[in-house]
# Entry
Amino acid sequence: MQAKPFVATHKIVKKPLRRISAGEAPYRNLEDPGLYVFVYDIDLTMVAHADNILLVGNNFKGKTDVTGKLFRDEIKAGALTNGTGWMDYVYVHPVRPNLYYKATYYRLTTGSDGRSYIVCSGNFKSCGV
# Structure
């Protein structure tokens, strides 16, 4: 999957957070709009999102996908326990209508400000269409 290599090597600092939220490359893949980076702080507040700037500043603790899965809380738990991992859930594709299965790779990292962040990027799964 393409999501893992980017997240695995990225260091969070102030400038990249702004670049992520601006949707700049390489934080958003222009050829595959469903592949983008997003970042939570340790309290599950979105601090950067390459596809939807309106999500930045919102807290997602306890919020589910349409199936009732607390995927963000599970991402946080996995990041705190293992440092990295994969999470499957249902989400809206940025350019296709309807909901799709998504597999997101996440990684716990320490920013240049000394705070902990969870850097994520995922791929939407093919529906065979």
Q: What stands out?
A: The radius of gyration is 14 Å. The first helix runs from residue 3 to 9. The chain is about 20% helix and 30% strand.
